[in-house]
């Protein structure tokens, strides 16, 4: 089909054949000793070698279930940390390029979150679930707690903070179920502190039926508005994704003007106005299902990273799948995973050397796994 003009994109690898051959040869030698995980936002020349592809939630599950000696994580740093936490001490998790981070995850660090936590406990007169004898028992009736929830897109020490304080991790696939759990645990007069992505927090809370008045934003650079914070159910960290904030309502309007009847789906990391204007919103896995289920001939505008959008467009030849942003819209940190780096780490493994290993310190891993396991139990 592909009748509308697709955004031009020059992000394919021109010289990938050499790397491809090196990767295939090393992978063959390693056999089932290695598993390669590829996030949906990775370039095609990485995805073609992945044993499993998915969003951060699905890949965390795949890592947890794997018995491979080494897991090569083609994604960003926080994802590899989660894989290390969820795998055994005998397994190693490596990244092709350890400099591939996430700008959103970097917007919340432990000292700032701890300062926010302490101020909220004091000013809003809430209890800390960590003071409870058994942090896994249900919320006590009549008491108000502050329950921390962190998006998967956060560092391991923040996941550990959340685990220690009786909270939970969420992904864009399961945020509503996790927030329901957290609210129940917080009690009628309690609150949820959600970080680092304000948009996922806001879009999920609104979709659950909460109102603007129920939501306050915490920005460590600004003086807190205690009227707002005191009356809220959700305190959202001020973070955002630099890729998903590029999508606008004007882009949706333009697409619909040029293609009457076009369908639009936006990732919940997009601004609320974009999510409201779209026909649907959901995680990368949901976006994939939405495109698969759309009728033949449909034009579908997608508000998420370009590599996934291009792959969907190539996969469904009877539909036209376009990125809402007409310019180039890759995640620059995901793009730091180049096939040359993948070939290097695999060849090191063949030589018996583990390079670029991601190791989360034991105490941090022990607390973080509490928060990850709560998520897996809620969404089982
Ligand atoms: S797309 Fe956004 S949230 Fe995802 S890794 Fe890139 S910067 Fe982080």
Which keywords apply here?
disordered N terminus; alpha/beta; single chain; 15 helices; 380 residues; Rossmann fold; 3 domains; 41% helix; five-stranded parallel β-sheet; binds iron/sulfur cluster; 13 strands; four-stranded parallel β-sheet
Give an account of the 3D structure.
With 380 residues, the protein is α/β, with parallel strands linked by helices. The chain folds into three domains: 116 residues, Rossmann fold, CATH 3.40.50.10800; 137 residues, 3-Layer(aba) Sandwich (Rossmann fold), CATH 3.40.50.10800; 80 residues, Rossmann fold, CATH 3.40.50.10800. 41% of the residues lie in helices and 14% in strands. It contains 15 helices and 13 strands. A five-stranded parallel sheet has the order 6-5-7-9-8, with helices on both faces. Helix 1 packs parallel to helix 14 and helix 6 crosses helix 15. Iron/sulfur cluster binds next to loops.
């Amino acid at each position: 089909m592909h009748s509308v003009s697709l955004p031009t994109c020059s992000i394919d690898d021109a010289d990938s054949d050499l790397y491809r051959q090196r990767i295939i040869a090393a992978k063959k030698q390693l056999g089932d000793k290695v598993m390669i995980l590829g996030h949906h936002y990775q370039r095609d020349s990485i995805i073609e070698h992945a044993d499993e592809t998915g969003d951060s939630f699905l890949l965390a599950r795949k890592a947890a279930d794997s018995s491979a000696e080494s897991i090569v994580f083609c994604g960003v740093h926080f994802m590899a940390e989660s894989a290390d936490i969820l795998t055994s001490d005998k397994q190693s998790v490596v990244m092709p390029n350890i400099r591939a981070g996430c700008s959103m995850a970097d917007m919340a660090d432990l000292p700032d979150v701890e300062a926010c936590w302490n101020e909220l406990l004091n000013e809003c007169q809430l209890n800390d679930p960590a003071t409870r004898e058994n942090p896994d028992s249900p919320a006590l009736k009549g008491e108000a707690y502050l329950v921390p929830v962190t998006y998967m897109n956060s560092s391991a020490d923040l996941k550990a903070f959340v685990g220690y304080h009786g909270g939970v991790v969420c992904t864009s696939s399961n945020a509503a179920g996790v927030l329901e759990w957290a609210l129940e645990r917080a009690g009628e007069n309690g609150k949820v502190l959600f970080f680092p992505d304000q948009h996922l927090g806001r879009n999920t809370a609104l979709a659950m039926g909460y109102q603007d008045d129920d939501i306050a934003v915490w920005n460590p650079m600004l003086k807190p508005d205690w009227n707002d914070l005191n009356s809220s159910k959700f305190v959202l960290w001020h973070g955002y994704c630099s890729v998903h904030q590029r999508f606008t309502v004007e882009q949706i309007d333009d697409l619909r003007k040029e293609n009457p009847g076009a369908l639009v789906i936006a990732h919940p990391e997009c601004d609320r106005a974009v999510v409201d204007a779209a026909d649907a919103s959901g995680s990368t896995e949901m976006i994939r299902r939405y495109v698969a289920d759309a009728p033949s001939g449909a034009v579908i505008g997608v508000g998420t990273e370009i590599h996934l959008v291009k792959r969907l467009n190539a996969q469904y030849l009877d539909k036209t799948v376009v990125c809402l942003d007409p310019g180039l819209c890759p995640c620059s940190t995901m793009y730091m995973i180049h096939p040359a780096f993948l070939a290097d780490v695999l060849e090191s493994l063949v030589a018996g050397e583990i390079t670029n290993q991601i190791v989360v310190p034991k105490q941090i891993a022990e607390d973080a796994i509490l928060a990850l396991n709560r998520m897996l139990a809620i969404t089982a």
